[in-house]
């Protein structure tokens, strides 16, 4: 299997789980945060909805320079808006993967803030970072939701909220 098809498969698999998480973010808790150093649920879930957009950015550009392009996330106010943003970015991600080739994915891409370089990786590696960041931040969102007593959907099988887990005594 070629790397592009592998990425497409993984992006779609992770999208199924991400949709479940974004759809249950309580609309009345968007400004809630578990700790002063933590993001709000709005910031975290918006970031998750945006992350598939890093895939076309990596494929179609050679760098992101925060000194030239300040990060200004869209303000989303409901789980429906989160899902809409996520689907828009997911569609762009899939389209960019379908329209690229491995030679493009082998090219270098840089994340910087002016002269400060945060990372330089191949475009394929940036696609991988986007997928990994989605999984990472989705897990953070799961913790936030758990702290709000929202039942958590399963990611790679059922969650503790979807089935009864019984502790087995060791003999």
How is the secondary structure organized here?
Blueprint: H1 3-23, H2 41-50, H3 54-60, E1 63-65, H4 79-98, H5 102-105, E2 108-113, E3 116-122, H6 123-147
Parallel strand pairs: 1-2
Antiparallel strand pairs: 2-3
Helix pairs in contact: 1-4, 1-6, 2-4, 2-6, 3-4, 3-6
Structural class label? mainly alpha
Number of strands: 3
Total of helices: 6
Mean pLDDT: 94
Largest sheet: 3 strands, mixed
What percentage of residues falls in helices of 4 or more residues?
40-55%
Strand proportion: 5-15%
Q: What distance separates the N and C termini?
A: 46 Å
Shape: globular
Unreliable stretches (pLDDT < 50, length at least 5) are: none
Strands in their spatial order, largest beta sheet: 1-2-3
What is the H/E order?
HHHEHHEEH
